[in-house]
């Protein structure tokens, strides 16, 4: 399912061990810790183990989003099949200095278009207090489907599907 994707401003490449320093930074940002959770990635060796776990799972794909201007890694788009959801879901996280510039929408849109070629329905989950993710999902064409309980959290489940011709 993995393929490198490009927009005029961004290059999306599948996650590799060379992304360890970036992953270490990203998973320790305030937004990640608040809305996604602490993954216990405290140094580069933890980041390498985290990446290897992702790469070993055939149901998970992470694209690293890079700026075409300076080739800097700025965020990720995820696509995975979770055991508690009936369809694959898409996710996103960006370094805080790249928020509010349209990068998340641009990257998520190209991945969404790509995965909708193979999957008729895509889900996304978020916490109710994550207003910026909710706005982005709605802008991408997702609609609220239901609330679910997952561990200690109430998650909002959003859905989009392939447009019928």
TrEMBL record:
The lineage of its organism: Bacteria, Pseudomonadati, Bacteroidota, Chitinophagia, Chitinophagales. It comes from Taibaiella lutea. Gene3D superfamilies: 3.40.630.30. One of its GO terms (molecular function) is acyltransferase activity, transferring groups other than amino-acyl groups. This is GNAT family N-acetyltransferase. Residues 10-164 form the N-acetyltransferase domain. Keywords: Transferase. InterPro entries: Acyl_CoA_acyltransferase, GNAT_dom, N-acetyltransferase. SUPFAM superfamilies: Acyl-CoA N-acyltransferases (Nat). PROSITE patterns: GNAT (PS51186). It holds the Pfam family Acetyltransf_3. PANTHER family: GNAT FAMILY, PUTATIVE (AFU_ORTHOLOGUE AFUA_3G00765)-RELATED-RELATED (PTHR43792), N-ACETYLTRANSFERASE DOMAIN-CONTAINING PROTEIN (PTHR43792:SF1).
């Amino acid at each position: 399912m993995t393929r490198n994707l490009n927009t005029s401003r961004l290059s999306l490449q599948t996650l590799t061990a060379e992304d360890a320093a970036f992953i270490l930074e990203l998973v320790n940002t305030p937004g990640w810790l608040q809305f996604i959770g602490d993954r216990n990635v405290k140094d580069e060796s933890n980041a390498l183990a985290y990446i290897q776990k992702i790469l070993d799972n055939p149901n998970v794909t992470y694209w690293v989003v890079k700026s075409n201007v300076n080739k800097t890694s700025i965020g990720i788009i995820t696509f995975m099949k979770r055991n508690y959801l009936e369809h694959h879901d898409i996710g996103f996280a960006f370094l805080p200095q790249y928020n509010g510039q349209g990068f998340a929408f641009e990257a998520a849109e190209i991945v969404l278009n790509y995965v909708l070629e193979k999957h008729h329905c895509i889900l996304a989950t978020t916490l109710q207090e994550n207003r910026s993710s909710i706005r982005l999902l709605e802008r991408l064409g997702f609609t609220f489907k239901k609330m679910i309980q997952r561990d200690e959290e109430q998650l909002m489940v959003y859905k989009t599907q392939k447009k019928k011709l």
